[in-house]
Amino acid sequence: MTAEGAAKLREELEHLKSVDRPRIINAIAEAREHGDLKENAEYHAAREQQSFCEGRIQDIEGKLSNAQVIDVTKMPNNGKVIFGVTATILNVETEQETTYRIVGDDEADIKSGLISVNSPIARGLIGKSLDDVVNIQTPSGTVEYEIVDVAYV
Questions:
Q1: pTM summary value
Q2: 3-66 CATH pick, 1.10.287.180, 3.30.450.20, 1.10.3210.10, 3.40.50.360
């Protein structure tokens, strides 16, 4: 995972632990004061929120403990496409430029230009260098791209 992705997960984890968890505990305590728990919808809703929150905390802690964080800003830019770089590619046929940042599966967001390292485009770009021409298999067929910029940011 990238350094930015790890920072976002740590931020979410801190928010869950310091804001959401205490709020849910208070909601459960308040719902218990209303009496019979069997027919108390507020209690059941709060318990469900607690279950989701705790599950998400465990999920994030697991990802962070197993993650290998890669910070490309500390690497020399040799023009090679690797995990974490921002690559600008040019569709040779349509002359359309697109910029993607290659990130981990959990960070991927195509609308923000963040593509998973396991996506077909990223797999086609990894290991290639600036000015290389690559053929990438897409659902509409093979598309030829030229790598016009590689940024280690």
A1: 0.77
A2: 1.10.287.180
